[in-house]
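Troubleshooting entry. The earlier prediction with heme C gave an output that would not parse, so I re-checked the input for stray whitespace and re-submitted. Clean input:
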Amino acid sequence: MTSTLDDKAEAAIEQFNTSSQYHPPTGYSGPLWQIKNDYPGPFGTYATPGDAPGLPLPDVPVEHPWTKIDFKTKEGALQYADMVKDYCWEGNRSVDFVVQKNTVRPWFHAPWMHASANGREPLKGLTYERSIPPGEFASTQRSALQNWAIGFYNAPGTVVFKLLLTTATDEEVPTMKGSPAWKAVIAQQLSPLVTPSTALIRNDYASDVRLIQVDWATVDNRSPIGWVFGTFMYDGTLENIDDPWDRLTTVGLTWGNDPQLTQAAVDKGQKPVQSWINPAAEKLRKTLDGARPSWGYNGRLNGPADNFISACASCHGTAQSFDAPLVQPGKLVELPPAPGDEKKKKKWVPLNERLTMTWFENVKAGEPFSHRGALSADYSLQFTIGWSNYNTWSKTWKIQLQEKQEAQEAREKNQIIPLKTTLLALPTRRIVFRPPKGAEEDPEKLQALLDSIQIEDVPKRAGPEFDWS
Ligand code: HEC
């Protein structure tokens, strides 16, 4: 049995089974979130007799009702999205997404998502996501919003979905009216205008976070990238729908990055053909009158909580063993105000167009984003983060263990000791660079491009932080 395991393996198993490294609020006695990580066995096996079957072999096609729907038509897209959502809600919605209680089919959480500063909070297993800067989503949105999320995986024929919850109020974001709330232990936020860059310091109380966005991704071999991504936004105008968890409007679907859609093409009036945006969602976005110019980059798909300079398939295409920057480098520049318009406008300008377009290639499922010996994480960024957290842990586990013991002893003596950085270290990002097409022909130009990249240009996990004031 485990007697042959060394200390490190034992410590790793303990981490693997850790749900959250943050404490519930003082005096809290309600339920705590628990990770479900009893994943199915390897391809085609049964772990022990009576157990769930292992994963089907990769060449065994898995039929889902939506695999027969043409997602490239408007009716098809809406139908596809609704079918996926029903599938994700089935057996989960009624148990408040405590997947252990789902009697319809098994769902799992991603491992190692607890082990960083932004890692899982204790009540709902939520991780800290990109914040929405003031004014970005709605003109009435004065505060910087914290967003918290949890993802769920199933197998076979993989379907993934992710619930995103926000601190937005109805007053600031009118579409949030009636949105369902969860209690979660979120990050300490000292000013309403600025969210902390990491969630290292948590409150000692639970706050309401409310549903803003539901992301999903399905394996679909009709897609050039092997996946179809889609997203819903919570839509308070659908108040005639009784269950608030069903008040969801499809923002759109995407099955590729539109690699040909350069800035020059956009300037000539070309539109993405591998993203479909629902006109109803477009209308909601415009009614809110926020500063975001589109859902995703140059009209590609992205959701309300996501960075408009990126897109679902672009950011997820970076999922691999080397930490790749999730979004292309660039910055916001102020535009001269239009005559008679007092409002200062800003435009996001990429550092380099060719470099940018490497983020919008159609990376095939299973292929890495950068070709420097990286292993693909097949569009799963939760897995990428968990993997990265594991690597950080693996290098620092001894010190971490020692710090944990010290913290435990201090707690027993009612002393407060400062949080240690090694325990909660965010994985560092390295520059990975995939040479653009034709780079071999022009080594000097390529070198100049490489030289022009500064470490400061490498965006943080969720991209540069914007100031809309
Ligand atoms: C700028 C980067 C970025 C963009 C854009 C983005 N995501 Fe993600 N997404 C992430 C990260 C990082 C995670 C993992 C961390 C987490 O869930 O807390 C994630 C997690 C997910 C998950 C859970 C499974 C997984 O792959 O890790 C799904 C499903 C998902 N996103 C769908 C979408 C959809 C749909 C869109 C577009 C509407 C989108 N994402 C846009 C960064 C991004």
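This one parsed fine. The pocket of heme C is lined by residues 127, 129, 149, 151, 160-162, 215-217, 229-231, 301-303, 306-307, 310-312, 315-316, 326-327, 379-382, 385, 462-463 (CB under 6 Å).
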